[in-house]
Amino acid sequence: MNKIEIDRLSLHYSDGTESLKNISLNIPANAITVLFGPAGGGKSTLLRILNRLNDLADVIYLSGKVLLDGQNILDPKVNVIALRRKIGMVFARPVVLPMSIRQNLTYGLELAGERDKSAHQQAVERSLTQAALWDEVKDRLDDPAIALSGGQQQRLCLARSLALQPDVILLDEPTSGLDPISTGKVEASLQKLKKEYTIVLVPHSVQQAARTADYAAFFLQGELVEYSEGKDIFVKTKDKRTEDYIEGRFG
Amino acid sequence: MLDRLRLKNNLDNLPSSTIRLITERIGFGILTVIALTTVIPILAILVLIIVNGGGAISWEFIAGYPSDGMRAGGILPAIIGTLYLTMGTAIFAVPLGIAAAIYLSEYAPDNRWTRLIRLAIINLAGIPSVVYGLFGLGLFVVFLKFGTSILAGSFTLAIMTLPVIISTTEEALRAVPQSFRVVSISLGGTIWQTIWKIVLPQALPGILTGVILGLERAAGETAPILFTAAAFFLPRLPNSPLDATMALPYHLFVISTQVPGMPIGIQYGTALVLLAFVLSMNIIATIIRSRARARRQW
Description:
- The complex is a heterodimer.
- By secondary structure, chain A is an alpha/beta fold.
- Chain A has helices at residues 43-50, 80-86, 101-111, 117-130, 134-137, 150-162, 180-193, 206-212, 232-235, 240-246, and strands spanning 2-13, 20-28, 32-36, 59-68, 71-72, 87-90, 168-172, 198-202, 215-220, 223-229.
- Chain A contains 10 helices and 10 strands.
- Chain B has helices at residues 2-13, 15-37, 39-53, 59-63, 76-107, 112-126, 129-143, 150-175, 178-186, 191-220, 223-226, 248-257, 264-295; strands at residues 66-67, 72-73.
- Chain A binds chain B through residues 51, 53, 56, 81-82, 84-85, 88-89, 91, 93, 95, 97-99, 107-108, 110-112, 144-146, 157, 160-161, 164, and chain B through 177, 179-180, 182-190, 193, 197-198, 202, 296-298.
């Protein structure tokens, strides 16, 4: 079943940087869809469209449709705030908010007007467990989040998105600054999480793309070059450009 | 290999490297001396005022009313007047200044209007204070019929203080990392929630420092209150915002130039009180800033 259907999506920024050219792509539910390719290919832009974070950027042209459960999220009448609660985002650099570990996790709930302490506690425990961080921080939930290591901070950011019980999780090179052990933990969490969530991942390397992908899309300079189910794209590559990139001939 | 080693040795033995070292020492030495000389005027002012005015400070001087044509007694009405004027300035300038800074930093699009507003604020900061005084006289005292009053003086001082508060607040808001805002918005926050829950709390120490520095300037100014609030001699406390008031800087001006046979101790004593008032605000601002810096999590 397709969770997100992207239909002939095009975008230009006012400064002429990265853009998207007529992208059509289906993102299935309960799977990890990987968007990979060299920098400036439009992967991050596409992620930022999915939860309308691009509203903050200087976009001069946008056309096409993005359907989430059949509803066009680019429609100006869409409640963007509710949309962002449904579609969580984890950024490349772990950005913990300047507050305690617990407050980082309940921040989104408070924004949504949830004041019930037991609901907060439940969300904290559940989301930290899902992000494989509970055992490491359960005794110091009220410590400042900045005291955590980089890998822990990034898992806290993942947990922070999960605390809102979203449908979709977007991850933009979430492990680019992490050591292999932390990276492994994040990837393992994602494999578990995909049973309940739809996951869209921009990996920080081709290897990570190959390890994690249930579906994979190769982006090059704003174009969707190739899309495949499973690992096909890595073993039975159809397009020459995809092959060149995967084999490291450019990038 | 050998060649390279020899080259290195040659470079080390060049006479110019010793000369360079010496010129560097001399240069730094001169800079140090210059830096130290800038402290001299501040110390000189403090010493002069404390030596000449310290003797005048007493409970009667601080809590008493002037007598004998201000040649004796205390300066309580001037102290209270300056307190009132500073508070009045804060009431008008702080909410307005912070609101304007939030708008400029968080909401305003980067267009011609915004640039015009910023230009206006920068220019407002450059206007001589006596011009503010004249403006206050025309608008608040005469046109709006506030009369010479604490209200008119506070409004005038507030307008003068606004640019300082706006620009320091805006700077404090901009110092809060943009990534916090993006995260907050990606978690379903509105811009206002993001400002209220993240940006303002993080910027608060910087804002407070700016506010205090702005008010400190207002507390010490003479010209803006000269025509709008200050009474030459009022041996009682003002009993409404529409009353005129004595104030420390103006009182100092009066007793230094307008009253013959003035004991020098009272002049310097008044200056000492004014200085203590302003410096203590400065110290509070410094403490807030250094505490916040120690506790900051970014």
